[in-house]
Specification:
Helix content is about 5%, strand content about 45%. The radius of gyration is 24 Å and the shape is elongated. The two termini are about 45 Å apart.
């Protein structure tokens, strides 16, 4: 069945197993149709989740973009304050890690993506951590 506008539809009911008998064979369902829209919310702060007593943690990049899909009117009214991006660091030892971000967003949206999906996490004093040369990007040098 294809639905392109708001409508009321009669549907057949089916019992989940043979030992159940339904009091009704059909039900009336109201369908509400709305246009969907995609939106990117840019520059949302990334927050490291660190266990108490852990060393300082740095996150790079400190901001990320979240791509979502939802009902057009609601998506247009969204603000960045409805989102949070966290990186669970926990009790990792000092070092450099690449960890995925986790997005907290309203349940009525579909999360399409996070850019970037992973973040460089430096646990402890960055001066004491050896970062492999291929992972170091000089300031002003274009990246891929």
């Amino acid at each position: 069945m294809w639905v392109s506008e708001n409508s009321d539809v009669k549907v057949d009911l089916v019992a989940p197993n043979q030992s159940l008998v339904l009091a009704r064979k059909t039900a009336q369902v109201s369908l509400r149709v709305a246009q969907l829209e995609d939106r990117t919310l840019a520059n949302i702060p990334v927050i490291p989740l660190v266990d108490a007593g852990q060393p300082d943690v740095g996150i790079s990049p400190p901001l990320a973009d979240v791509m979502v899909r939802g009902v057009a009117d609601s998506v247009r009214a969204l603000t960045r304050s409805r989102f949070s991006i966290t990186v669970p660091v926990g009790d990792l030892a000092e070092g450099v890690y690449f960890l995925p971000g986790q997005v907290d967003y309203p349940a009525w949206l579909t999360l399409i993506g996070l850019d970037p999906p992973e973040f460089q996490v430096i646990v402890g004093n960055a001066d004491d951590v050896d970062v492999p040369a291929e992972e170091v990007v000089e300031e002003g040098t274009p990246g891929d």
